[in-house]
User: Fold this.
Amino acid sequence: MKTSSMSCRLALGILAGDGDDRGERISARLHASNCPRCRDAYLAEPDEESRPKAGRDPSEVPAALRLGLAFLAASQFVMALPWLFGHSFVPDAHVTIAHLSRDGGLDIVIGGVGIVTALRPRYVSSTLVIALLAFMTQLVAEIADREAHAVTGSFQLFHLLVVAIVITMFCVDVSVTRRATPQIRPTPLVLRSR
Assistant:
């Protein structure tokens, strides 16, 4: 990596050897203040405890949150599978087969991305977008079916599971974002005055 007129190797050499020329030391410090690689390599206290932490692994989402999401998503997936074929575990004679099939497809997508998110939280940014798109599509279709009397209000309560999955995915996203954000680093020696 190279910033301005000084290479990383030259800057670290000058800073490590406390070069004789004051101008070179200033240029090396300037380089290190703009170069993350050099700033990390040249810390005031190189022991492990004082080293800044670059953030935790995004997969460190709390286990209870991941387990809860996996349970909700798997429940939704199992419940929606028969809907895909126009059948339901829940007896409700006032729901059309077209409504069940469409909801089955969308709910399988939402359940599937919920399971993927529970297993691999680092993918939450993309899986959350897919879940939100499927949820919005389902919401618009639910309103249209309600107007056409293709579904009953009691059957719609089963979609609260979808809402719970999306909210839990938001919680995973917040957790991943918070854990992936680097913590405040101590001021490196190269940025301190001598």
